[in-house]
Amino acid sequence: MRGGDLTGAILDERYRVGERVGHGAMGSVYRGERLKLGRVVAIKVMQDDVVSDAFRKRFEREAVAMAKLEHPHCGSVLDVGTHEGAPYVVMEFVDGKNLKELLEAGPLPIQRATDITRQVLSGLSHAHEHGVIHRDIKPANIVLSHKSGLGDHVKILDFGLARFHQVASDLTSGLVVGTPNYMSPEQIAGKPVDQRADLYACGVLLFELLTGTKPFQASDPVAVCMKHLNDPPLRLADAAPGRSFGALESVVARALEKDPARRFANAQEFSRALSEAGDATIADSAEPTLEARPARPPRRSRRAFAILGVVLAAGIGGVVVVSTRSDAEPPARPMPTPAPVAVEPPPAPAPVKPDAVADLVTRARELASTGQRERGIEELLKARKTYPSDARLPYNLARLYLEKMWWPDGLKQAHAALALDPTLKNDPELIKLVLRGFNTTASYDWTLAHFLRTDIGEPARPYLEDAARTHPNPIVRARATAELRRWK
């Protein structure tokens, strides 16, 4: 079977190989089944003509890299093995449409494009924190899973080009790997790359989702590479005339900077900027209703009222001056000079005590913002043993976990924070993070729903009502509407 189609083969008496569903430069991907359990899996087998030890090691490194990743937006490795001398990797099978197929229908609405990109950035943030750089982010490697019926749920596949930027390696020395349309300038030039190469590729991806085209276009791959190295990218508005992109122009431009130092420092920073710019762009592009516009007097009338006010004020002031200077008043008597009174100087302000917990929280957030989220979490967990009654520690732990969509740990810390400070149930950031999980999990999550309904309660209702009324995804609107019925 080696060298041909493996359909029907049994690997290590554990996996039955089904139909081939994909083929790349390094191997083929099959739909498979885990015997006894009946679980559907994806099996990637390295092709025989890839005989180089370097390529074989790169393939094996994919399994090591992906096995470290446990995140809702990262495809996970389940097993590895060798069949007739050919290594294979068993991965979760993701059933859905990839972005390349989706883009065949044209550009996406702004809300959907930014939501998808932020999910990609969330998965990449997790990978980068584990020292893994994907190096081949492109639409074909991003799958939208629809198995839950929820809508867009991103899975990043194929970490075959991943490398650990903390470990020096000469396996790909002098070898440029990647897809030209999405490669960063430093990647094309064969220079060392870090996580910012993935952010550049995300910038290209976002550009394509918003406009339906790429920021650099040429007739052949070499010419495309030269444009990445030397030419400024298209503006969104030039690539898609007639659409308004607002602040998204600057976000995409920063992601596509030639110099990595001028790009976003990490995926979280990119995601935050994208969220703010996307919300502002969507708000600006919507036509306000008449009811939302308070009646205003004409500009000339407002100015006339202002001038009249000044005149009236001046008149009143004149009256006051005239009346106080009237000759009918007796002359003012001189006031006796009071005896000097000894005045004690005010007490010196008490020295401000340093707030150790605030410093710890600030440091943890700074670590998270620079791609060291797990270190930040570890420091807060240690601090909880020293300051067990300070609600700020579990609250910020909850936020760090929930921002990464680690729901069980996040809810555990959120429960602890509310037990110490019940007023935190009114905190908008906490409510929004939990609601995001409720809206985007692959299936209805009872624990997230119960937390919103029971632990938060009424403060969460307006946010849930807003999702039911205005969320761009009709399935999310339906889920929120159904959940609201349970509150009555």
What does this structure look like?
By secondary structure, this protein is of the alpha+beta class. It contains 18 helices and eleven strands. It has a six-stranded antiparallel sheet, covered by helices on one side. Strands 7-9-10 form a three-stranded antiparallel sheet. A two-stranded antiparallel sheet has the order 8-11. The protein is globular. Residues 164-175 and 287-332 have low confidence and may be disordered.
Which short descriptors sum up this protein?
3 domains, 18 helices, about 500 residues, Serine Threonine Protein Phosphatase 5, Tetratricopeptide repeat, alpha+beta, six-stranded antiparallel sheet, Phosphorylase Kinase, domain 1
Tell me the layout of helices and strands.
Blueprint: E1 10-11, E2 15-23, E3 27-34, E4 39-46, H1 53-67, E5 77-83, E6 86-92, E7 96-98, H2 99-102, H3 110-129, E8 132-133, E9 142-145, E10 154-156, E11 163-164, H4 185-188, H5 195-211, H6 221-230, H7 236-239, H8 248-255, H9 267-285, H10 299-324, H11 356-369, H12 373-386, H13 392-403, H14 407-420, H15 428-440, H16 446-456, H17 461-470, H18 474-486
Antiparallel strand pairs: 1-2, 2-3, 3-4, 4-6, 5-6, 7-9, 8-11, 9-10
Helix pairs in contact: 3-5, 3-9, 5-8, 11-12, 11-13, 12-13, 13-14, 13-15, 14-16, 15-16, 17-18
Structure annotation, total helices: 18
Overall domain count: 3
Distance between the termini: 61 Å
Helix content: 40-55%
Task: Give the low-confidence spans.
Answer: 164-175, 287-332
CATH fold field value of the largest domain: Transferase(Phosphotransferase), domain 1
The CATH homologous superfamily of the largest domain is called Transferase(Phosphotransferase) domain 1
**How many strands appear in the DSSP assignment?**
11
| Alpha-beta classification | alpha+beta
Instruction: Report the C-alpha radius of gyration, rounded.
Output: 31 Å
